[in-house]
Amino acid sequence: MTATTLSSEQATAPVTLSLDPVTGVIDPCAKREVRRVSDLAQMFGDTDAIRREVEADDRMVYEVQYHPFLTPDSDLALGVSRILPGVVGDEYHMTKGHFHTQPDAAEIYHCLAGTGYLLLQSRDGMFEAVPWRPGTVTHFSAAWAHRVVNTGPDDLVFAASYHWNGGLDYAPIIERGFRQRIVRRDGAPVFVDEPRWAGAR
Length: 201
Ligand code: M6P
Ligand code: ZN
Hints:
The protein is mostly beta strands. About 10% of the residues lie in helices and about 45% in strands. It is built from two helices and 17 strands. The strands form six sheets. The chain has a six-stranded antiparallel sheet, with no helix packed on it. It has a three-stranded antiparallel sheet with strand order 11-10-13, with no helix packed on it. A two-stranded antiparallel ribbon has the order 1-2. A hairpin with a 6-residue loop joins β1 (about 20) and β2. The termini are far apart. The structure holds 6-O-phosphono-alpha-D-mannopyranose (M6P) and zinc ion (ZN). 6-O-phosphono-alpha-D-mannopyranose binds near residues 64, 97 and 107. The site of 6-O-phosphono-alpha-D-mannopyranose has 11 residues, from β5 and β14.
């Protein structure tokens, strides 16, 4: 391989930011989104619990902070999500979960704090649940939908390294969900089959 030296005109200045692995706070932060129970009304399974929660205080389930490092030749971005501990009905707090629409938009998730699972699912229903703890790093291609579930007693914080223009597709998740949900039974996480996948191979 030949080494290439970029001229100062070609080189985009490096950018450094700070990330607190416990709180998930990044600085600078270009955009912050709060996801409440109502934002996940199509994801959680217990419709009565969702209605009660939304009528009560529609509390926050997780927040995401974003920083796109957009340069003329790269769309790499950092996203940091902090999922609060807890359940809606008996289902553990989780992210919405999505596919990427651009076939080359792979992503890396880095668990920084807390414990839980990363659920991965292909469009034809291949499914994996990766146990997660601080220091776990998972790379997946655009072929895999991804959702993180916080099954621990503390905040679960993870960083995402991804393509800002990778495109988000939530429709298959809204339609059929992931093959398994993680629910609290006697204080511990248990995987239960999603009925909308019953009979599928
Ligand atoms: C992470 C990345 C981003 C995504 C964001 C929100 O930062 O995966 O691509 O936009 O999370 O995703 P979700 O709505 O599934 O939580
Ligand atoms: Zn993603």
